[in-house]
UniProtKB/TrEMBL annotation:
Residues 350-429 form the Flagellar hook-length control protein-like C-terminal domain. Residues 254-274 are annotated as: Disordered. It comes from the Bacteria. InterPro entries: Flagellar_hook_control-like_C, FliK-like_C_sf. This is Flagellar hook-length control protein-like C-terminal domain-containing protein. Pfam families: Flg_hook.
Amino acid sequence: MEINGPPPTTMTPRQIRATVNAWQIGQIMHARVVRQATPQAVLLQVDNQQLLAKTHVQLAAGQRLELTVTQLGDKPVLQARLLGSAAPTNLSTAAPGRADSSSAPMQTAVNALLKQALPQQAGMAGLLANLSQLNSQAGRLMPLPPAVEAITKQLYRQLPTADKIGNAQQLKQSIANSGIFLESRLAKNAADPGGMQLKQALQHTVQTGGEKPAPGAYSATAGDLKANLLRLLGAVQQAPRVSAPQASAFQSSAAASQPLATPPPLRGQAPQAQARAAATLQQLGTLQLLLQELGRQTEAALARTQLHQAASLPPGEQTPNSWAFELPLRNGQQIDIFDMVIEEDTAREQGEEDGNPPWSVTLAFNLDGLGPVYARLRLIKDKVSTLFWAENAHTSQLFKQHLADLSQRYRAAGLEPGELGCFQGTPPGARERAATQIVLDIKA
C-alpha cells in the first residue's frame, strides 16, 4: 500500500518530548527505517514509537540502525551505524542549518551540563517544605550548625510573598532573582571596577559555608535563589560531621516518599503545575541524616536551576528567545511554585505586523484547593489575550466567573483585553513539537 503525504502522527507531542527527555548521552538504541519521508528526512521506528530524523543518507524501508546519543538539548543528535552487513557502515550526514563550528564549545558545555544535571535534578517542593519547617520550628526540630541555620532563614525570608508579587517592580525583581541570571549578573559586575571582587566574595562565602561572609557577597546577590542555594550547600558541606546511629527503615524511606519524579525543564518543555510536598526532616531523627537530606535536596534544586539556565540560553537559528524559570512564593507558612516561560511568539495571526513580534507568558501552578492550573498570556502591543486551563471542574467554573473582572483590570491598567477564556483539562502542547516535525539529527 502506498502512503502519500506527511508521516503519520503516531505519538502525541507530550509523548515525544517525554521520550526524548529520558535519553542520556552515550545511550545506544536500535531503530528500523519505516520509510524515507523526504529527501532529507527519514521516519524511524524506535521501540514502539515513530520519530522523524534529519539525514542526507538515503535509507530503504526495513533497514536497521544502531543509534548512539551524542548530543542532547533542543534537537538531539544521534550517531547512526547501519546494521545487517559484514562491515557496518557509518552514516555520513552533514545536516544543514546546524550551528557553525564557532558554537561548538558552547554546545559541548551545555551537553556536559545536561549530562550531569539531568540525573540529579528534582522538583523543589520537598526542599521548600523543609525550609518552611526549619524556619517555623527553629531550635525545636533539632539544633542546627549556626551557618546552616542562618542561611536557611535567609533563603526562606528572601523568597517573595504572594501578597507583594502583584507589584510590577517586585515581580521584575523576583524574576531577576530567580537564579537563571546569576552568572550573567556576576559577569556584568566583573566588567566594572570591583566586580571581580564580588565574584570572589561569593566563592569565598560558599567555600566557608557562610560562616565568614565576605564583604559585598550578600549585598549584591542576597536575594538570588541560586546564590542562596549555593550558600546553603556550602554550609551543609562545611558542617561538622557527627557519627549517626543506623537509620531505621522509616527514616531511610522518608526522602524516597517525596514526589521527586518532576520532569526536567528543557527547552520546549511546557511548564509544570507542582503541588506542595510534605516536610520530611522531622522524620529523620538525627542531625547527620537531616544534613544529608538537606544537602541532597539542595543539590537537586541547583541542578534543576541549571537546567532552567540551559533552557534559557541564547537561541540558535529559527529558535525564539525564551526564558524558563520557577518562582517560589511564600503564602503564609506554605510555599507555592509558579513554573513560568517567557518567550517571543513566532506564530503570527492575520493582521499582525512583522515589526512588532508578540510575546507570551506561559505559567503553571497548583494552589491548595484549586488543583493544577495552566495559563497562557499573549501580548501584542497593548492587547493582551489570556487563556486558562484547570484540571478540576470547580476551578474551571470559578475562573470563568471572574473573567469579566480580569477584563476590567486589564482596562484599568491601560491594556486592551483580547481573547479571554477558561477550559477544563490541560492545555494543548502548543510549545511541544508536533509529531510530524523533525526532532532529531543523525550523523556519522
